[in-house]
Amino acid sequence: MRILKQSPKSEKKIKVLIVITRLTIGGDTNVVLDIADHLNSDPLYEAHLAVGPVLNHEVDLTYLAYDHKIPTTVIPSLVNYIKPWVNLKALYELYTLIRREKFDIVHTHSSVGGVVGRLAAFLARVPVIVHHVHGWGIQENMSKAVRTLYLILERICALFTDRLIAVSAPTIQKGLTYRICKEEKFALIYNGINLQKFRQQVDRQKVFSDLGLDSDCKVVGMIARLDQQKNPLDFIRAAAVVVKKYPKVQFLIAGDGSLRAECESLIDQLGLRGNFFLLGYRDDIDKIMPILTLTVLSSLWEGLPVVFQEAMSAGKPTVANDVDGARDVIIDGETGYLVTPHRYEEMAERILYLLNNEAICHKMGLTAQKYSERFSGEKMVENITSLYRELSKI
What we know:
With 394 residues, the chain is of the alpha/beta class. The chain is built from 15 helices and 13 strands. The strands form 2 sheets. Strands 3-2-1-4-5-6-7 form a 7-stranded parallel sheet, sandwiched between helices. Strands 10-9-8-11-12-13 form a 6-stranded parallel sheet, sandwiched between helices. The longest helix is centred in the N-terminal third of the chain and has 18 residues, at 84-101. The chain is globular, with a radius of gyration of 21 Å. The two termini are 13 Å apart. The model is unreliable at 5-10 (pLDDT under 50).
């Protein structure tokens, strides 16, 4: 690793390239934009983004990078799936960009972006290479060949990565189980958010009216993409169980994705029209969160979803599948409940318990809000820049 000769008094800023395959709905997009924003407000740093294209069925949030005035390069070949010739083209284009702009630090996100971005940075002899692990790319339906290739690539890239940022302790444990690298190469840095944003007062009646909800009903919400990872169909099945025993409740999902048609079909099949609302992509989650009685997340794998932190900051308990980083955030029985993946009946039981016990639900929400203080966006970026300084010997 080459040492950067840079001091805070120097006019030359430290140039950081942040690489991610796409900016779409999800916590990793929020984290990337927050990191870039904070770095560009620091006189020591200059942050740029390199992003790939967003698929047709996903919500394209690339415009947010321009709105935030973050210098951004869109690389069409930087896709979020394995396609060798396309991936090699992305590698070359990233290498060319890095050499031309002379970046001091390359900070990658997402699985394919992490492999391609780190290889390009290594070949371009970038002094500091950091990879942000929001969650490992191993999936239940992944073939043995693809899984083996993924692990080989992660292990190779880890050899020349100065540090891997893990967003939760279970993420580190999984990395060790997969033999990605030794423990000392990991740095645990929790995702962070603007906590105050989710603590503002809202006009509840107006929000209910705007969303077409019944203000006499309690509301259970999930903020998530409609895709395989987030597993929204189990949330819908749990809702059907709850409604039979607690009719004065409505459910919503704020988010969109490839499973929307299946979600709509299941809502019809289970007779949930009027009780279940698919809101699509929303950019006003901070207005929706305060009207919820509790939140749910039915994901099958996660690193550390920022929606946990948003719900906690808003003072809402969460019922979530006990996967990966969930246990790092949700204290079972104190700030919410952890349930078994694919067991929607168990999820329904916990939702019903909180709906039927308002005092306990409220107490859990207050405990969650107090616990959320450790997840501020400022603390996240402070930890990241501290890591940059350590690796760069600034």
